[in-house]
Amino acid sequence: MKEASFTELRSQAKHYFDLVESGETVRVLRNGRPIAEIHPIAHDLPSWKRRQARPMLIGGAAISELVLAARGR
Question: Is this model's pTM higher than 0.70 or not?
Fold first, then answer.
């Protein structure tokens, strides 16, 4: 993890944000103490796409099977 003083971050912001964009985390220091971390945003899937798809059931039978049975297939 890279560290930068607040003043250094302001004067070389492009350099540090390029590091963040490439996957690096930058810790910002003020008076030698950490005050913030700048990290890349994870490009995750939306929560509804992360869940495993499960068949919908009615009384233990899959709805698709019930529909096909009702259609005589």
Answer: no
Local mean pLDDT, 10-residue blocks, the chain (73 residues): 95 96 95 95 76 77 84 84
Q: How many residues can be counted in the chain?
A: 73
Q: How far apart are CA 26 and CA 58, in angstroms?
A: 52
Domains and CATH numbers, the chain: 1-42 (3.40.1620.10)
Q: What is the 3-state secondary structure (H, E, C) of 8-47?
A: HHHHCHHHHHHHHHCCCCEEEEECCEEEEEECCCCCCCCH
Rounded distance, CA 9 to CA 51, Å? 39
